[in-house]
Amino acid sequence: MATRHIPSTITLDFLLPTTITLDFLLKLAARNPTYIITGHGRKEMFANPREMHLRIESFLDFLDAAHPRWEQKIVLLYGGMTYDKSVPDVSHVLKELKRRRPKRIRIVAVQPDIVAKEEMNADVDGVLFFKTEYDYKTVLWSGKNAEGEAVGSSKVWFSPKIAPHINGLIAFGGGTIAAYEWDQADKLGIQRLFYQCQAQEFEGHGPFGALWDHIHGVETVPEQ
Asked: What is the CATH number of the domain that holds 175?
């Protein structure tokens, strides 16, 4: 993947794709409304595209009301899941948000450096790579480790530097990692919005995903 480093001046109109630093993300979040986007991943996937699009429209209505100055850019952080047309996961949400608000929305993927050489989605404006963490041989992309400590992208956006500048955690459905992030956002006083979306695969939890179960106090069967 061809990348270039960001210029010294703060701008959201840099050419793509751009590798950014944690300090740059801090400046970006401090100067622009910044939201974390989570939701159904490749284990769950969205069952109803029309429902997903309706939820996206609701979120855009929220953004437009919360940030009425159209010249103001809005930064969306997510875990960098690669877009695949045949796999309706949260990357589809990001792609559609960017399509609907191309001049306002800037997307930053927060990913482990193990994928630094892989091709990035064309809709992504910047990528922040963090040092890859493992549980034995399993990459810890986000969420928490066995000790309950934040790992991966969660460790970045809930860090003491970045968290105070996060305007909200937005969940379009979501699994167990999203449930952890939901609780972390609450502990840090970060606004949370949940958009109910039916999942294609929901073995071990209800039809709207593990996060819905978590919010409503429904017991989820632990993953094996």
From this structure: 3.40.50.450
Task: Give the number of domains in the chain.
Answer: 1
Task: Tell me the two tokens of residue 193.
Answer: 């919005």
pLDDT in tens, 29-84: 999 999 999 999 998 999 999 999 999 999 999 999 999 998 889 999 999 888 89
> How many CA atoms lie less than 13 Å away from 168 in the CB half-sphere?
14
- Residues of the domain holding 85: 15-215
What is the token pair recorded at 203? 């073995």
Whether residue 4 is contained in a domain is answered as no
How many CB atoms sit inside 10 A of residue 83's CB? 16
Q: Is residue 9 part of a domain?
A: no
Report residue 202's pLDDT band, with 50, 70 and 90 as the boundaries. confident
Q: 115 in a domain, yes or no?
A: yes
Do residues 15 and 4 lie in contact, with contact meaning Cβ atoms separated by under 8 Å? yes
Start-end of H helices in 67-110: 90-100
Burial degree of 204 (CB within 10 A; 0-12, 13-18, 19+) = middle
Q: Do 56 and 96 meet the contact criterion of CB atoms below 8 Å apart? A: yes
Reported as a pLDDT band with limits 50, 70 and 90, residue 219 is low
